[in-house]
């Protein structure tokens, strides 16, 4: 047993921004390997400039956000191409967001309703000031040019 053992140390320090409470900057970076599993077709659809939801094979309930099984009757669903035009069902202005959204803050999140679809689709509304968003506003889907296989690869603009 070595009672004099020590962890290796570096000359790095920590920048102290505040003392009561203590506020420091701590950088954290990590790469994740992530599987979209059964949701993979949704993200592949975004790369093809398509919005995919799911439709129940038994009762016909249509989900704007994909489900493997129907939440109404429990039956399996199949992939269903959603319209790319809809209306703002509701919206909120976000004054704070994750690192990916800092340059866009404030930004507007919307729930889009599509004709013939039973649930709503959440996305960003681009091209209007936050105070210009309106319930019922016609919108259409747009897609980023270079797909990153993220939910943010689709966004909506005023029609």
Structure description:
The strands form 3 sheets. The protein has a 5-stranded antiparallel β-sheet, with no helix packed on it. It has a 3-stranded antiparallel β-sheet with strand order 4-3-5. The mean pLDDT is 91. 17% of the residues are buried. It has one domain (38-158). It has one helix at 40-47; strands at residues 16-19, 22-24, 52-56, 62-63, 77-81, 85-94, 107-113, 121-125, 138-143, 154-158. 5% of the residues lie in helices and 33% in strands. It is mainly beta and 159 residues long. The protein contains 1 helix and 10 strands. The longest helix has 8 residues, at 40-47. The N and C termini lie far apart (73 Å).
Short synopsis of the structure:
With 159 residues, this protein is mostly beta strands.
Q: Into how many domains do the coordinates divide?
A: 1
List the strand order in the largest sheet: 8-7-6-9-10
The radius of gyration computed from the alpha-carbon positions, rounded to a whole number of angstroms, is 22 Å
String of helices and strands: EEHEEEEEEEE
Shape category: extended
Biggest sheet character = 5 strands, antiparallel
Helix content: under 10%
Spans of at least 5 consecutive residues whose pLDDT stays below 50 are: none
Tell me the layout of helices and strands.
Layout: E1 16-19, E2 22-24, H1 40-47, E3 52-56, E4 62-63, E5 77-81, E6 85-94, E7 107-113, E8 121-125, E9 138-143, E10 154-158
Antiparallel strand pairs: 1-2, 3-4, 3-5, 6-7, 6-9, 7-8, 9-10
Question: Which key phrases capture this entry?
Answer:
1 helix; three-stranded antiparallel beta sheet; 33% strand; 159 residues; mainly beta; five-stranded antiparallel beta sheet
């Amino acid at each position: 047993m070595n009672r004099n053992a020590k962890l290796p140390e570096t000359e790095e320090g920590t920048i102290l921004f505040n003392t009561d409470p203590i506020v420091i900057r701590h950088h954290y970076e990590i790469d994740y390997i992530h599987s979209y599993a059964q949701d993979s077709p949704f993200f592949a659809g975004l790369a093809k400039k398509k919005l995919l939801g799911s439709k129940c094979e038994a009762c016909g309930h249509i989900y704007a956000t994909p489900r493997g099984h129907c939440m109404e009757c429990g039956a399996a669903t199949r992939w269903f191409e959603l319209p790319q035009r809809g209306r703002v069902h509701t919206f909120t202005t976000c004054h704070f967001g994750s690192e990916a959204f800092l340059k866009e803050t404030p930004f507007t999140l919307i729930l889009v309703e599509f004709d013939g679809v039973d649930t709503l689709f959440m996305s960003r509304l681009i091209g209007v000031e936050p105070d210009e968003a309106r319930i019922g506003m016609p919108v259409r889907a747009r897609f980023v040019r270079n797909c990153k296989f993220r939910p943010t690869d689709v966004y909506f603009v005023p029609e």
